[in-house]
Amino acid sequence: MTAGIDGKVIVLTGASSGIGAATARLLAAKGARLMIGARGQERLSHIQNEITAAGGICQSQIVDVSDAASVSALVAAALSAYGQVDVLINNAGVMPISMLDQLRVAEWDAMVDINLKGVLYGVAAVLPIFRAQKSGHIITTASTAAHKTVAGQSVYSATKFAVRAFCEGLRQEAGRDFRVTVISPGMTQTAFASHITDPAMRERLEKAGTDIAISPDALARAMAFAIEQPDDVDVGEIIVRPTAQP
Length: 246
Ligand SMILES: NC(=O)c1ccc[n+]([C@@H]2O[C@H](COP(=O)([O-])OP(=O)(O)OC[C@H]3O[C@@H](n4cnc5c(N)ncnc54)[C@H](OP(=O)(O)O)[C@@H]3O)[C@@H](O)[C@H]2O)c1
Fold this sequence. Notes:
Blueprint: E1 9-13, H1 18-29, E2 33-38, H2 41-53, E3 57-62, H3 68-82, E4 87-90, H4 105-133, E5 137-141, H5 154-174, E6 179-185, H6 199-212, H7 216-228, E7 237-240
Parallel strand pairs: 1-2, 1-4, 2-3, 4-5, 5-6, 6-7
The protein binds NADP nicotinamide-adenine-dinucleotide phosphate (NAP).
InterPro entries: KR_dom, NAD(P)-bd_dom_sf, Sc_DH/Rdtase_CS, SDR_fam
Protein name: Oxidoreductase
Family: Belongs to the short-chain dehydrogenases/reductases (SDR) family.
């Protein structure tokens, strides 16, 4: 794998909005060849068209990261389009947070299926490729909730703690063959809070978002920093949060 970003083939999930969309725009501007995925066709096509209109190289495919076959198909599409895969960014995630007493069990399932199992499926899809190439880079979006748990965020936080633990094991098993990075955002201005179904919790998060949240561009720059390091430099983890975040 060559150092830098120019020419690298990057598969990016959750690319239709927020941190993923900002990352796709920045990496394309730096010369990456992208395969972007998300569930909703309309927003995904919008980002793809925006990038290609600006001169970037970007293809897209619908993906549901909670379905292993769907994630494999996304990676296969990148291989078939570009002949190689250099970086996988496991960025798709959901945060329908609520107090446990509300027993929103279907939402707990969704967080485990998307935030945790989605990452495992991404790794399963690229691992044989990276072993064969003896190069590659797996970047996963965790959260400051992967470092600190607060009431109302137990299940979300549990999925993100698990992702960090998993990525540390993956890093150790990777050896010299590929790099493993975790990017942990704090409060970031995205569509995230709008998916919270508990009205009080949504209002609280939306207010915090308005008061202190940072631009998703800050996370995109962190992703780019990790990718553009020399091959023998593995940026293990970056936490990027608002200065004002407690
Ligand atoms: N915003 C924050 O304050 C914050 C803080 C810490 C961590 N994070 C993490 O940052 C990552 C990105 O979130 P964001 O803030 O940018 O939120 P966002 O604006 O809601 O974007 C989430 C993206 O993930 C996609 N997605 C959701 N479920 C998916 C699935 N099952 N399969 C494929 N794609 C799926 C969404 O598109 P579709 O719905 O169309 O699939 C969208 O493109 C997440 O992992 C999140 O946990 C965010």
